[in-house]
Amino acid sequence: MTAQAAAARAPQDSAAALIALVRAEGSAGHRHPVSGALTHGPEAARNVADIVHHLCLLHGRHPGVID
Q1: What is the spatial distance between Cα 15 and Cα 17, in angstroms, rounded to a whole number?
Q2: pTM of the model
């Protein structure tokens, strides 16, 4: 196999490996996101606020309504 052929295959192999890893060990199959303890009860509003806050930390500089 030439270096060009290996370089052309690398992104596809890496993507396939990443997709397989997410399917095998990702959060979609975990019981916690769909548990009633997360979405019901007196802590439900706090849990939603925590989720939104952490998403903002991951995807934005500062959580805010007007940027």
Answers
A1: 5
A2: 0.41
